[in-house]
Amino acid sequence: MGSWGLPLAAAAFWTGLLLWDARPGPTLSWPSWVWLVLGLAGLAAAWIAAPSRRVEDPLARAGLAARPPEQVVAVASGAPDPRRGPLAALALLLIGLVLCGTGWGGLADLRRQASLLARIAPLPVELTGTVREDPLPGAYGWHVLIDARSVTWSTGAASLRETVWVSGDDEPPEVERGDLVDVSGRLEVPEDPGFADSLERRGIAAALRVDTLTRLGDSPSRFVRATQAVRRVIGGSIERVFPPREAGLLLGLALGDGSKLDTATERDFQATGLTHLLVVSGGNVAMVLAPILALAAAMGLARVGTAVIGVVAVVFFVILTGAEASVMRAGAMAVTALLGTLLGRPKSTGVVLSAAVLVLLVLDPWLVRSIGFQLSVMATAGLVALASPLGEAFGHVMPKPAAAAAGTTLAAQLAVTPVLLFHFHEIPLVTLLANVLAAPAVSPALMLGLIAAFLGVVWDPLGSLAGLVAQAPMRYLELLANVLGRAPVAHITSRGGAAVLVIGAIVVVTLAVALRTGWRPPRPAVVVAIGVMPLIVWTSAVAKGPPEGLTVRFFDVGQGDAALVTSPAGASILVDGGPDEDDVATELAALGVKRLDVLVASHPHADHIIGLPTVLARVPVGLVLQPGCEDGSALKADLDRAIADEGVEELHPHAGDELTVGDLRVEVLSPDRCWSGTESDTNNDAFVLRISLGDANVLIASESEEPAQEALLEAGVDLHGTVLKVPHHGAATSVPEFFQAVGADVAVVSVGENDYGHPVPATLDAVAETGAEVWRTDQRGTITVTFEGPTPVVASAR
Fold this sequence. Notes:
- By secondary structure, the chain is an alpha/beta fold.
- It has 5 domains: 2-113, no CATH class; 116-220, CATH 2.40.50.140; 227-364 and 438-489, no CATH class; 370-429 and 490-520, no CATH class; 551-791, Ribonuclease Z/Hydroxyacylglutathione hydrolase-like (Metallo-beta-lactamase, Chain A, 4-Layer Sandwich), CATH 3.60.15.10.
- An 8-stranded mixed beta sheet has the order 14-13-12-11-10-9-22-23, with no helix packed on it.
- α11 packs parallel to α13 (325-342), α12 packs antiparallel against α13 and α16 crosses α17 (431-458).
- It is globular and about 90 Å long.
- The two termini are 48 Å apart.
- The relative contact order is 0.06.
């Protein structure tokens, strides 16, 4: 099959794994063993269809005997069978591998469905197992993955090998990956579709809400205990010799420990597409393996000894750094290459990558759904296919070192772009520049940082002195991410979907073929593309320019709030950021928003402010408005840190204050105090704003409840608004008189799937009785209201 055989085989098996969930209808809902049998039959047919190879006399091949005439060989071999050919064999092989992949994916899914923990849920249980990854803080507490080895419940006990998602409140427990722990709590099979799908992608069937978590000791495995000891020594030294921000950066870069990473730094790196620098990557494996192999060669070790040392070093490093997807891929490639060299059959990088991918997918079929694994494989494939020709092309216009860096960066970026657009729906165009500028500092930051850490193990002052040198490239990376993250550069955005992957793959493959073979597209196609491109750019620019009238977009962010107000003069106000870290920032990028004049955090509840720190990291903001009432939540503290990190001015206006934002007028109607003693003081502290442009206006009532609404009515505040953002997602916390006083023509309920019953029928009826037309984001998607003069015109995404 040549050099393309193994890559095609790996791609076929990968496709088969994905097809298990995509098989069409009940007609093809066969058991997994049927797919496996069909696949094995396909492989057998490929073997039969493969053309036979002539077996040449070894003496003749060595020149020690005369070769028989070609005519004799032809007669001896017989006439070729027209039914046997390389193309038919290859087609049958690929079909067989696709079917085998489908069956293998089905077996993995059967193991998940047969989960003992899912069967005994929702019972309280006690689990014993090992921590797979370090506990991570979240918006609502913390979570960690635990590989359970035994479980006890009220009526039984069992041994098992199953991974469970464990979560809890308050601070994360003092455990690290590899630790043996005892956990008690209540099992559950997640009902939330998003959460359930997220667990399913990891092959996890059950979650456990923890009551107690007790560390029993280090890992039961001596090998893993050794990695834990090294990690503690090096990690402890890093934390001693570096300031907290740089220590967090180096811990992620060198050891795969993201628990100490500064949140502002993380957001900056995400905004510039440099997130891959915050974790251990495949390049780290090469940095570790190269000196070890060089030392083995200098010691004169035999090929077998060198290979064994190399494999052990790779496995140790993979476990040490937490077996991240990219490191597993690189580790598997390194082991494959070492074994190939040992056997005297070294292969090309593309073949080694394909073999590593195939082996890993057989061992862990769930890797096919890992975004990290997908990105790592695609980036490496891009380097194999595109880095050299791009570097040569750039070499004609820039110095060779810069050309190599640009070619490598662009190759990896082109390959991962379809995957990023599919999963995350956006790519900042500044990414290429950021990666090129960052490349020279990454290796020095890592190597100097590790040298300082090793010196710190010997003597802290010596490590701290060396750390001063290592901080230079680290702070350069931090500054680069911070500056470029908010640069007014456009983003490539998409709505996701399979079409993005298909079209993106076609573009990348076409480019690779053109660069490597010299093929050029037909001239008519080039002419058409050149003619259409200005039209696309012009249409996009017009769509993303200032609106003709006051425009309000109520984003569909699920169970939460986020609204963008824009004006003909270019003023822009964002009110709240929804419950997801990235959704609103992505929406702003898709709309071409390069700056925000005002960002409003109506009140510090998760469904309103979780997305705001990311917005602050990616978009320049002129002013932040917050109520300024006391709140000790971690979410509020995170937002305050983000505001301080970005150096944005902050105001705490109250009822009666007015602001002019370009051609917009912003009136603060509530709160007139910081509430206490109500059922939800934080909700009553929330802003009620009226934003106007001439006679056109919108009243954004965020989450005010009965006490705040009644105070407004008793004070005789003018509440009229043509468009109303209904308070509290339409909950039963409003008084009908409030809606009557507003008298809106259009009422928007920002709501998503929830367990609270929002919006309640009584509230919807009270709004409708005022004559308002009610629109809901859970039913219509993002809702856009554009004023033609004082008249609102409503459009929705669906």
